Amino acid sequence: MYYSDFQKYGKMLWDHQLIHMTSGNMSVRKDGTLYVTRTGSLLGALTSSDIVSVNASNTQRDKGASSETPVHRAIYMANPDIGSVVHAHPPYATALSWDYETIKPIDSDSLYIPEIPVLTDCPYGEGSACIAEQFPKLLGDHKVAMIRGHGAFSVGKDLREAASRISMMENQCRLLFLRRQLEK
Asked: pTM, whole model, 2 decimals?
């Protein structure tokens, strides 16, 4: 159903080095169904069998679905208006997440993403109950947020918007990171 969008934006995440190998995942919500990338899939080279459908309200891990599916579900449940969630491992944003509870971009794109909250109080574990419980609260009205030392989740009306927000956030963090280096 959404295969071409998954393929296009998975490749974009790969091409822009926002994911590595089997890291990252994406989902789309349509009515009571989530279409989510399969666990272990290569987002940069997705095939149609890499997209699985799961019940949007199920609280159990679905066979074959990304290990982060519980976090995707929790985000959707807390945000009924969003249509897509993207999880990536952007290197500059992840590096900065170790030093900030809220990353405050300094470039002109801060008009669109003025701050990036960082979840700091959950030990990382793929699809962990703590992250699924805490992350939607942290995300709140923000469009992107980080898990300290791990990666980012973004939301949007579709995969294009959610993937674009990850890309914009990483560019903001790259500029902030480079600025910090110049100040040393």
From this structure: 0.93
